Structure to design on (393 residues):
């Protein structure tokens, strides 16, 4: 993930392809780097009791206070952080298409997204799974050999790269159908979407998410993709694409930020309150993952409102704070994609080493997440020293 001055290659998310940007934006670089580290803590939370799928669970999601807090942390993250990566990926796609053309854009995407996806699916994924199985008494090498020989492809977190390949193909098709029209010269004067338009987009996204989860409940996968979340991912990627010419992500109105952040903060407690109320309200004592249930409706509508509010707050906040990046932040931004790719086996290994320690779940979550971030930062730096590695990660 590299950023630079006019005409240099830039990445915008944990699996984004090389893109072209008019100028360096330290705030967006710092934001994607921070969100990448949040992904590591997200998976650490699942390791120690939050609901969700992962390679290794030291503690189950058992309804304890720690488990509930970690599950809430994961639910809030899930509402916005991967969607934010899709928004940024869509934002830098039009400039890359105009600069490179469809063929070169597609080739670069296959290299930057496809190669890491294959490397994880055939190697790092099986390694992560074999490490996790050692906690159940399974020998590492025999489990690894059995997994690899089975031909099973394990997407893991690299589902994001898989999704971006699909969205990238859609962007190329759109680019060709619109006859490669360049952005209008006065695009910067196009007003930012109104609050009514943003609200309608959130409501329609929630309805679409509810509909998708009737067929693909949260937790179910199709070739590594949890399609139940793809209503917001698709909307945000398309929104990023549309926002590129007028550069909306770099000029979010302060009034819009305040209003949507307030709305998000008001809505945040709705989901945990609904979940806790299930003990006394029968209609709420049903699955929120999908189906014709009241909790499924609440969850589907809650997510986009929270996502819009947090994203519209994070974008200007980071850009005001990080007009330029310090050397440490620059290194972190450069290494973010590599960190994202390699973190699963590192996190599982760290958790296994700390397994004998009799510490509270929340403390182990913080320790394991922090150590994993530090180790991945160092390992990513070494990885990027390999000749040719920067072309891929």
């Amino acid at each position: 993930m590299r950023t630079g001055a006019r005409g240099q290659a830039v990445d915008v998310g944990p699996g984004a392809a090389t893109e072209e940007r008019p100028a360096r934006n330290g705030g967006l670089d710092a934001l994607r780097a921070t969100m990448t580290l949040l992904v590591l803590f997200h998976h650490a939370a699942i390791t120690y009791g939050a609901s969700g799928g992962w390679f290794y669970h030291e503690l189950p999601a058992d309804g304890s206070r720690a488990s509930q807090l970690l599950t809430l942390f994961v639910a809030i993250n899930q509402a916005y952080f991967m969607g934010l990566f899709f928004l940024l990926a869509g934002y830098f796609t039009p400039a890359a298409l105009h600069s490179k053309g469809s063929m070169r854009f597609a080739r670069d995407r296959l290299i930057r997204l496809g190669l890491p996806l294959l490397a994880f699916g055939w190697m790092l994924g099986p390694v992560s799974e074999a490490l996790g199985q050692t906690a159940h008494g399974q020998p590492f090498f025999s489990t690894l050999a059995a997994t690899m020989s089975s031909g099973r492809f394990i997407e893991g977190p690299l589902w994001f790269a898989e999704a971006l390949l699909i969205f990238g193909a859609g962007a190329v098709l759109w680019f060709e159908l619109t006859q490669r029209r360049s952005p209008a010269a006065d695009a910067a004067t196009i007003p930012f979407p109104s609050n009514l338009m943003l609200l309608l987009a959130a409501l329609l996204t929630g309805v679409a998410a509810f509909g998708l989860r009737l067929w693909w409940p949260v937790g179910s996968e199709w070739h590594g993709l949890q399609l139940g979340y793809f209503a917001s991912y698709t909307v945000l990627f398309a929104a990023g694409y549309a926002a590129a010419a007028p550069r909306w992500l770099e000029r979010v109105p302060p009034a819009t930020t305040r209003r949507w952040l307030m709305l998000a903060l008001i809505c945040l407690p709705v989901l945990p309150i609904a979940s806790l109320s299930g003990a006394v309200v029968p209609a709420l004592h049903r699955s929120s993952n999908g189906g014709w249930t009241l909790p499924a409706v609440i969850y589907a509508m809650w997510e986009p409102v929270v996502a819009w509010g947090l994203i519209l707050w994070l974008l200007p906040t980071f850009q005001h704070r990080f007009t330029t990046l310090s050397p440490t932040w620059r290194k972190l931004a450069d290494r973010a994609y590599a960190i994202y790719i390699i973190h699963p086996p590192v996190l599982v290994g760290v958790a296994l080493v700390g397994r004998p320690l009799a510490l509270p779940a929340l403390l182990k979550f913080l320790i394991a997440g922090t150590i994993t971030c530090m180790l991945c930062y160092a390992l990513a730096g070494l990885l990027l020293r390999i000749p040719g590695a920067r072309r891929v990660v």
Remarks:
- The beta strands are 9-10, 19-20.
- The chain has one domain: 9-392.
